[in-house]
From TrEMBL:
It catalyses: O-phospho-L-seryl-[protein] + H2O = L-seryl-[protein] + phosphate; O-phospho-L-threonyl-[protein] + H2O = L-threonyl-[protein] + phosphate. This is protein-serine/threonine phosphatase. The lineage of its organism: Bacteria, Bacillati, Bacillota, Bacilli, Bacillales. It is an enzyme of class 3 (hydrolase). Pfam families: PP2C_2. Its cofactor is Mn(2+).
Length: 248
């Protein structure tokens, strides 16, 4: 699996509350992680940092036997996310300046072409092939509930005043139930994990136009970030772009 990782503070923020990592084990299992923190007094970066670093540690220290099947991989993801949620939640209760903090979380467990995705919040995973663009994850947001129920249109959702109101995030409640998805990344396809600093600024077709350009993965990631900044850059912008394809 080839990958590139990008994280940018954007043009309007002074603190980057996004955290992102790609972690590899000796047994060829890999974990792509992205967290977009939220909370007062800059506590969002505390929540996202805790989520990423604890997920990294749990993954690297886990026995390989825990990943022997797709179902056991999903069980491990669920257990790890639940454990980290509890620790972030308890930390927020015991530190006054961190009360109410939380974070989105995307955790993608990768083995060869198979990807198992654990998802909380409104960070997203897209799958790009030569012919199609698919949004894999479903936003845990108020606007998405309105959209799915037919109360607002796609265009209205883009500019809704409560666009950033999240219904589910890691660390804000005692327990959490992530959504899970299975995706197979074929040789000529791409998996894009991103925070809403990217997805709020670029349409899926604009992303696809960049991802299919004849340039390196690193250049594609940098170009996606630049275009989001060129479109306003009001939020932090983070992404992981992965493919089985041998890039330039």
């Amino acid at each position: 699996m080839n990958f590139t990782v990008e994280s940018d503070v954007g043009l309007k923020r002074t603190v980057n509350e996004d955290r992102v990592a790609f972690v590899e084990r000796p047994d060829q299992f890999k974990l792509a992680i992205l967290a977009d923190g939220m909370g007062g007094h800059n506590a969002g970066d505390v929540a996202s940092e805790m989520a990423i670093e604890q997920m990294r540690t749990l993954f690297l220290t886990e026995e390989g036997s825990r990943f022997h099947s797709q179902e056991s991989c999903k069980e491990w993801l669920h257990h790890a996310i639940s454990q980290i949620n509890n620790e972030v939640y308890r930390y927020s209760l015991s530190h006054e300046d961190c009360q109410g903090m939380g974070t989105t979380l995307i955790a993608v467990l990768v083995h060869h072409m198979d990807c198992i995705i654990g998802h909380i919040g409104d960070s997203r995973v897209y799958h790009f092939t030569n012919e199609t663009v698919t949004l894999i994850t479903r936003d845990h947001s108020y606007v998405n509930v309105l959209l799915e129920s037919g109360q607002i249109s796609e265009e209205e959702a883009q500019n809704h005043p409560q666009k950033n109101f999240i219904l589910k995030s890691l660390g804000t409640e005692r327990s959490i139930q992530p959504d899970f998805y299975d995706v197979q990344v074929e040789e000529d396809s791409y998996l894009l994990i991103c925070s809403d600093g990217l997805s709020n600024k670029l349409s899926s077709n604009e992303m696809a136009a960049i991802i299919t350009l004849p340039m390196s993965l690193k250049e594609k990631g940098e170009k996606l970030v630049k275009l989001a900044n060129d479109s306003g850059g009001e939020d932090n912008i983070s992404l992981i772009l992965m493919t089985m394809k041998e890039e330039v």
